[in-house]
Amino acid sequence: MTKTPVKLTFEEYVTYDDGTDNRYELVDGELVMVPLPTGKHSDVIDLLAEALASAIPQQQRGNWKVKRDVGVYVGVNPQTGKERSRTPDLTVLTSAQWAEIRASETKAAVTKTPPLLVVEIVSPGSKKTDYETKQEEYKNLGVPEYWIVDLKQKKVSVLTLVDSQYQITEFTLDQLIISQIFPDLSLTVEQVMSA
Prior knowledge:
Blueprint: H1 10-14, E1 23-27, E2 30-34, H2 39-58, E3 64-67, E4 71-76, E5 83-86, E6 90-94, H3 95-103, E7 110-111, E8 117-121, H4 127-141, E9 145-150, E10 155-162, E11 165-172, H5 189-193
């Protein structure tokens, strides 16, 4: 017998505890488990987190935070009327956003305001979600920059919000990744892929 999924509000989601260390996204009011990353996936997250964190002082942005496992509330799906919250591989936040999350009494670290940057690393089962669904959600939320790191295609797509639309630039091989949020970043796609 198939178990009927429990429908949750966002407030119920951020206080949800099933007694495990499982991570979930909230998709149209339902919990969707976020699978653990592969070893390669984890190494790429580490490399990007270090590269972004080291670029913050160069820009004199000491108040920014690079975080793993911080959720992003992306709002209500207009088709279903149900709430959604995503858990990007990396999220760049202001210190004010991080302070608000830390002060929260909830079990889940989730921001309800647009982070400066989100990074999603494409997994075999997440390609359509990362390239289409999340792109639309992050755009509608007003996330200024969204990176899609595709290990299989060996490319990094940087989506920059311009006039409420994402402008997409794809980088491959030994090209430097150009970021509006991190203009002094010195990182090539090749470096990311060889993590």
